[in-house]
């Protein structure tokens, strides 16, 4: 079973809340013939609600194993998003999210 980050929208302070931690690499659910995660997803984000919108800002990083298209040798590259921002309309479903009565899962 995949672990998720749950943000309790009912109790989220008006000025938002910081979340940091790691989620297991299977959170990515990538096809076998694609790049594969070799590390957990590390996150340091701030969540803030604006009426019907949830704004997530912060940093995300994870290491992936890719295959070079020229040499066909595998290599590992860490992907970092330092100033990531994601706006989610509350009540709409996103592929990586599922509904929960008192929170959102990521």
Task: Report on the architecture of this protein.
With 106 residues, this protein is mostly beta strands. It has one domain (6-93). Helix content is 0%, strand content 55%. The protein contains no helices and 8 strands. The chain has strands spanning 6-8, 17-23, 36-37, 41-50, 53-67, 74-89, 99-100, 103-105. The strands form 2 sheets. Strands 2, 3, 4, 5 and 6 form a 5-stranded antiparallel sheet that branches. Strand 5 (53-67) and strand 6 (74-89) form a beta hairpin. The chain starts with 5 loop residues before the first strand and ends with a strand. The model is unreliable at 95-104 (pLDDT under 50).
Element order, helices and strands? Answer: EEEEEEEE
- Whole-number mean pLDDT: 87
End-to-end C-alpha gap? 14 Å
Count of the domains: 1
Tell me the fraction of residues in β-strands, as a range.
Answer: over 45%
Number of helices: 0
Amount of helix: under 10%
Rg computed from alpha carbons, rounded to a whole number of angstroms = 16 Å
Low-confidence stretches are 95-104
Major sheet, described briefly?
5 strands, antiparallel
Topology, number of strands: 8
Structural class, by secondary structure, is: mainly beta
How would you summarize the topology of this molecule?
Layout: E1 6-8, E2 17-23, E3 36-37, E4 41-50, E5 53-67, E6 74-89, E7 99-100, E8 103-105
């Amino acid at each position: 079973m995949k672990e998720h980050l749950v943000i309790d929208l009912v109790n989220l302070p008006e000025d938002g809340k910081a979340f940091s931690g790691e989620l297991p690499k299977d959170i990515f659910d990538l096809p076998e013939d694609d790049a594969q995660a070799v590390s957990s997803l590390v996150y340091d984000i701030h969540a803030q609600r604006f009426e019907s919108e949830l704004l997530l800002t912060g940093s995300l990083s994870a290491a992936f194993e890719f295959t070079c298209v020229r040499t066909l040798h595998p290599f590992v590259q860490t992907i970092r998003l330092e100033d990531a921002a994601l706006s989610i309309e509350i009540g709409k479903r996103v592929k990586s999210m599922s509904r929960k009565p008192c929170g959102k899962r990521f």
